[in-house]
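Because discrete structure vocabularies remain unfamiliar, we first show an illustrative case, written as a sequence plus integers encoding its fold.
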Amino acid sequence: MEKTFDILLESKINKYDELVRDKIYNYFANNQASQAYLELCTEKNWPLNLDHLTIRTNNIDSAAKQYENLDWKYDEKLEYKSEGWWAKIYRHDEFAPFFIDQSYDEWPEDKKIITNWVKKFGDQDFHHIAVLLPPDIKMEMAIESLKAKNIKFLGQITGQTGNRLRQVFSQAELVDGIPFTVLELVERNIDIESGEIYKGFIGEQADSLMKDSTLI
């Protein structure tokens, strides 16, 4: 990455523990869509806000231990039994939450998106990092700005305009022809029920994104 982008990223993640900081930096260093987003932040003076960090694994509880030791705490479990996977959310008072997911053991082998990814790449690298768009920036604007930098989006935006949560994945970047990492854009809006910015996750949207992560 260019030195300017290194400085921007370092300023955002320098307070993370070295273990997590290195994983974040490695993700940005090897994902072109995330580098293009750093360029946008620099050009448009957008803040760089990390919404969540995603780990794929075959054993959530085991994978989470190293982060629990750094004061991330279990918050909730999300299950998508009809789609073959589940996840746990771990939150920290100061830093972005972890979204850690795995396939159900009983799911057919050829349909285990997460298991098959872990077979190839392990469970130490982030599958994706989600960046939170500035409050005045809508999803469509960010997508068009990234497309101008040759970043592709093959999946659809989840969540209608104005919904409490909107998300989209960039096209997966390939290693040996296999989808590796994606960048997630997140737009968070007011939740009508609470009257505050929504901070959670929506099951149907998460599963739609899971499928989009395999598009090439």
Q: What stands out?
A: The longest helix spans residues 18-30. The domain at 49-212 is CATH 3.10.180.10 (2,3-Dihydroxybiphenyl 1,2-Dioxygenase; domain 1).
